[in-house]
Design goal:
Two copies of one chain form a homodimer. The first copy, chain A, is mainly alpha-helical and about 140 residues long. Chain A is built from nine helices and no strands. Chains A and B meet through helix 1, helix 4, helix 5, helix 6 and helix 7 of A and helix 4, helix 5, helix 6, helix 7 and helix 8 of B. The structure holds a DNA duplex (30 and 30 nucleotides).
DNA sequence: GTAAAATGTTCCAAAGGGGAACAAAAGGGG
DNA sequence: CCCCTTTTGTTCCCCTTTGGAACATTTTAC
């Protein structure tokens, strides 16, 4: 359950802002001891407080609670955000993003690839392509 | 405050799924009357319940609560919001996305990889990893 | 080492969530 | 239009749990 995550994150974001518990409590207009309890999982904020936290920290509720999963609407958010940047968005990219995120080792390898000299990159890509073709036929 | 928004949204998403209050209550393993109260702002779910709701409805907490914030540089904010120390959505991913978008052929190959049986995927990933290592040493 | 700041703990009252039972609407057939 | 079923709303009450104040402990700075 992500209730402990909330506790951790409250402290994390508070530290990130270099706020004392008292300062955070003031912003939320609550007692300081409550902040302590939140951060130690002795208590859990109600929803109104959680929303206030998300606002003073300027992070999403999902980030604050650690409630991320690959929900469609998150991907849609990304799609919306990213495609608004320059070009129309490619649905396949979203799938690949997810795939890469699920396979961190593979991700690292691609990351290494990206750092190789261009010519090597193209060679690797070519070999990779052959590899895939072979495995498709197996 | 978006507490009324939550009430509205719970009913909205429940209707969208064509669930009765009872059905929703069953999924959350709580009493039905509580759902009624949530939807009428007679009560507000605690955070654990809110997270469950976000999961059964498959929407983000921010969607569920109407806690939208509109930011200027969307991509930048998106990166900031979804990146954290465990980095489910880190800078590298965005870099890789761009890389893959720039190399459509490569993209297609990864796309093919993704569609292979799991075991083949892992084999390919392993070989790919070796390949990269080799090229790094050249 | 000491004083101040920051954080943690304990106690208690109050608030409010949750469940059960009852009440009221809403939807169909006949 | 009425009856029966389904769905939704309300009331009452228990009881968990929050939140605050005061006290305790730890950390920091000098």
């Amino acid at each position: 359950m992500s209730l402990e995550q909330i506790a951790y994150n409250i402290k994390f974001f508070r530290d990130q802002h270099n706020w004392t518990q008292q300062e955070l409590a003031d912003k939320l207009m609550i007692s300081r001891s409550v902040v302590t309890k939140w951060e130690n999982s002795t208590a859990t904020p109600d929803i109104a407080s959680l929303i206030k936290l998300s606002n003073v920290f300027d992070v999403s509720l999902d980030h604050l609670t650690g409630n991320y999963s690959f929900r469609n609407d998150l991907l849609k958010d990304f799609k919306r955000i990213y495609s608004s940047k320059d070009k129309p968005f490619d649905d396949e990219i979203v799938e690949l993003m997810e795939y890469i995120m699920i396979h961190p080792m593979f991700k690292e390898q691609i990351y290494k690839l990206k750092k190789l000299p261009i010519k090597k990159q193209l060679s690797v890509q070519q070999l990779f392509s052959n590899l895939i073709d072979q495995y498709e036929k197996l």
